[in-house]
Amino acid sequence: MKGYKRFSRSFMWLEMACVIVLLLSGCAIAVIHQDAPRMDQITGAGSTFDYPFFSRAFYAYADGPEHLQVNYQSIGSGGGIEQFIRQTVNFGATDVPMNDSELQQARSAGPVEQVPVALGAEAITYNLPHIRQRLHFTGRVLADIYLGKVLRWNSPEIAKINPGIRLPSSQIVVVHRSDGSGTTYIFTDFLSQSNQIWAKVVGTGKSVDWPVGIGGKGNTFVTQEVQNTPGAIGYVELAYALTAKMNVGMVQNRYGSFVEPNLHSVTAAARQFAHVTSRHFSIVNAPGKDSYPICGYSWVLLYEHQTNRGVGEAMTRLFSWLVTSGQSYAQSVDYVPLPQSVKRLAQSLIKRIAYHGQPLLQ
Amino acid sequence: MKSIWSAWSKNQLDRLFSSILLTFCLVIILIVGTIVYELVSRSALAILHFGFHFLTGQVWDPVHQVFGALPFIYGTVVSSVIGVILASIVGIATAILLTQYGSWRWLDLISILVELLAAIPSVVYGLWGIFILAPWLRQSVEPILNRGLGFLPLFQGQGYGVGMLAAGIILAVMILPTITAVVRDVMQAVPNELKDGALALGATKQEMVSLAILPQAKRGILGAIMLALGRALGETMAVTMVIGNRPQIAASLFAPGYSMASVIANEFTEATSKLYESSLYEIGLVLFLLTVVFYSLARLLVWRIRLQMRVNA
Amino acid sequence: MSHRLLLWRRLKNQVFFTLLVFMSLIALFPLFNILWYVISRGLPELSIRFFTRLPGPVGMVGGMANAIVGTLIVVSLACLIAIPIGVGAGIYMAEYADDRFAAVCRFLADVLSGVPSIVAGLMVYATVVIWMHSYSAFAGALSLALLMLPTLMRTTEQMLLMVDTSLREGAFALGATRFQTTVQVVLPTAASGLITAVMLSIGRVMGETAPLLFTAFGNSFWQDGLNAPIAALPLQIFVYATSPYPQWQAQAWTGALTLLAIILVINIAARAFGRGKLR
User: Fold this and answer.
1) What's the rounded Cα separation, in Å, for the pair B215 and B192?
2) A78 in contact with B at a CB cutoff of 8 Å?
3) CA C31 to CA C21: how far, in whole Å?
4) In three state form, how does the secondary structure of A276-309 look?
5) pLDDT tens for each residue of B16-53
6) With a CB-CB cutoff of 8 Å, which residues 274-303 of chain B face chain C?
7) Which residue of A has its CA nearest to B244?
8) How many beta-carbon pairs under 8 angstroms link B with C?
9) Domain B53-312 belongs in CATH node 1.10.3720.10
10) What's the confidence (pLDDT) of residue A25?
11) What's the number of domains chain C is made of?
12) CA angle, corner A235, sides to A234 and A236, nearest 5?
């Protein structure tokens, strides 16, 4: 008996440790059960291009009548496609629709519907604190900057298209994405169309072998690196540059005029391509006097055959809301509402989504 | 309680207990086996496709499906070596102060504070790196180094703030507690007779340290460096946030680089082609092998000394 | 001549000492610098809202309530997995195993401790996440448990080996079985050291970010059970730290302050338990 007592006393310490662990796990379990009226939650991943729009829209949607929480993690378009193929997420989002080989990989889970949900512009943003005017860029010069041929801000190539602006002699710090990104695809698509050498040496892709520069993960980090580095230049979705109050340059379009990215110029560009599909998706370098040349659609990836009725129904309702009245959230963060023709396309695609052959959306 | 105890015979209980514990040991074996198997089998495609060129290739181009890991290996090794050099200079000096000037009242405090560095999470170091360290390097340190030592290729070119140097410095701070603690233990293990002997012969403290202590502690110090190197190689978040994420091999420390752990963190979730994914697994495998090698070396060099000290204590 | 030599040696000694003190100050500088910025930049955003609200959408301010709870959940789960296995295996190595088996286990623990945290995440993704078709709190916990295991094993073993053999012999002489000896004599003697080891390893994994990237994944809402993605404080700090929005950056500092406070409390508690037995 005496031995037992000593045993228990010296064991007190271990017990206390157990208590702490139990407390921790207890609170864990309590929290899990605390969500008693359990809200449904679905998970999506992908494009950081979409993120400002999605985060606003989904935040509002969670408070809406559906009470559906959409956990969207912006890991980049490449990540969105891969995680969608792996089926670790309910939906993916990407600024470049899946290509044939990617669709082939997803085949085991059935056909894929790629629904356009957002239309936005890419801003050329730069960090030159002493310059008040908006700088002008051309695709050619941008390609030369990203190829490492134009090294300083006051080099003749830039000075020529920016007459009257006293450019600093500082070195240009090129910032690009380090992860696979639809933003990169749209940007390199534009550069390839504007500059032969770029097309040959680097090409178009979600992640390319960059000749120069520093890399950042996601639109957010690229924006931040530009923000933090004097003399830096980067390409980001417009919402990032505007929300962070950064300089946005004007870019020369195919017509020859310098245009700034905004509702008007992106709408003008989108109007030139009324019939986008997931195969013909590029709206870069649009003709027309007012068109902004670097913009694109963003797409949500959904399996046509849903395996869970509840999730399928929730998602079809979510996305048919997102492409219609949800578009108002797009405008509030400087995206452009989808044109009518694209809206119709999106709705028809969502209607195809089915559970055991039954369409989920009535 | 009592009834449960008595329902089992003593020996049965003993056997049950030991077999449960044995299962736990086997779980460890299973885990290590799984890790090695998964890493090797999943990187098999890249190993077969690129062979040894994977380790020497300098191009990392997902568009054209060409994957060479050399820039990442280079970035990892160079940033870690910078970190280890800086940390060992400071760490060894601190350890000497801690062990050989024992009468000083502040020493305990210094020791505790340095160890606190180990408690700071990687992501907090990264946060500090982005907002404090990188701007400081860009505005003050790099221009000065460039002006003073610009004739060396190491300090040429424009400093962005983020880059190899920033990664190296962050790593140095992160591994400083490891080096300091291990070197301190190693130095404490040096027999007192040697110290007393040196002092009795009229040596100054400095002579005692450099003639009696350091030669004895050499092996252990090397071990501490290996251990720190192993730790630095695998560091991910803080490095990703400040290294610049650019796969290149540049002589200048100001230039951005990339590390093996960072490329996995940045690109792993999105590797859509089989070869791309396999290449990332192979980078994981290389990283794993490197750290295991350094950890084992460190164990060989340090373990005996530390154990001996514990037994003595 | 000899007088000058003596002076020279004294000077060298003085310079050496000054250098050492200088180096130690350099060693302390980063700590104070980091703590200063974490506190001074973290305090302004510290509010009730930070602890009770969900993160806001882009450009709007919310809190990190889900991330703080998420971290606690993931780490508790990791403890539930790692502590029994790690401590159990350590006991077996110290008390039961023959030398050769113990050496094998020790070697494997060393190999495991060499696994970089990002590779631990990679492995859990490759096995658990792909198999479960979902990121989850459970996967996150598993990756953290992988990082805790080797330290727990080795320190448990060491703690037990430090227990005087005569205690065990005494127990055996009284007719105790190995089980009784271990549980009633050896473990209680080593208990405070064990608790320190456990708590230090908890503090270590609490701030891990890299393995959670592909396992816990993050969540902008409350977690929907343990087999769904979950938010974690380090992940949230990472996302906010790399954002271009001033409010988010400010909250990243507040998150860092919170995380650091939790970890420091655990560390101090560990030291209080250890009473200097384990460094």
Assistant:
1) 14
2) yes
3) 16
4) CCCCCCCCCCCCCCCCCCCEEEEEEEEECEECCH
5) 888 888 889 999 999 999 999 999 999 999 999 998 88
6) 281, 284, 287-288, 291-292, 294-296, 299
7) A214
8) 250
9) yes
10) 58
11) 1
12) 120
| pLDDT at C255 > cutoff 90 | yes
Residue C111 domain flag: yes
Q: Which chains touch C (3 or more CB pairs under 8 A)?
A: A, B
List the structure tokens of A241: 């540059």
pLDDT confidence of C185, banded at 50, 70, 90? confident
Q: Do A58 and C133 touch (CB under 8 A)?
A: no
Task: Provide the 3-class DSSP secondary structure of residue A128.
Answer: coil
Residue C48 lies in a domain: no
Q: Tell me how far apart the alpha carbons of residues A36 and A329 are, in angstroms, rounded to a whole number.
A: 30
Domain ranges, ordered by start, for chain B: 2-42, 53-312
- Average pLDDT over chain B reads 87
Identify whether C134 is part of a domain.
yes
Tens digit of pLDDT for each residue in C82-91?
A: 999 999 999 9
Q: Which of A280, A119, A95 is nearest to A181 (CA)?
A: A95
Please list the ranges in chain A whose pLDDT falls under 70.
1-39
CB C110 within 8 A of CB A48: no
ipTM associated with this complex: 0.92
Q: Is B9 exposed, middle or buried (0-12, 13-18, 19+ CB in 10 A)?
A: exposed
Task: Say which of B161, B246, B265 has its CB closest to residue A215.
Answer: B246
CA dist., res. A187 & res. A181, Å (int): 10
C163-190 burial, b at 16+ Cβ within 10 Å, e below that, comes to beeeebeebeeeebbbbbbbbbbbbbbb
What would the mean pLDDT of B168-174 be, rounded to a whole number?
A: 96
- Supply the range of the domain harboring residue C140: 64-278
Report the relative pairing of strands A173-177 and A258-259 from DSSP bridges: unpaired
d(CA B171, CA B117): 11
A206 touches chain B (CB under 8 A): yes
Instruction: Give all domains of chain A, ordered by start, each with its CATH number.
Output: 45-114+299-359 (3.40.190.10)
Give the domain CATH number at C217: 1.10.3720.10
Query: Does C257 reside within a domain?
Result: yes
pTM passes above 0.95: no
With a cut of 90, say whether residue C137 has pLDDT above it.
yes
Alpha carbon of A115 to those of A97, A279, A300, A320: distances in Å?
9, 12, 5, 10
How far does A225 lie from chain B, in Å, by closest CA? Answer: 9
Element (H, E) at A40: strand A40-46
Pairing of strands A40-46, A68-73: parallel
Cα separation, A159 vs A152, whole angstroms: 10
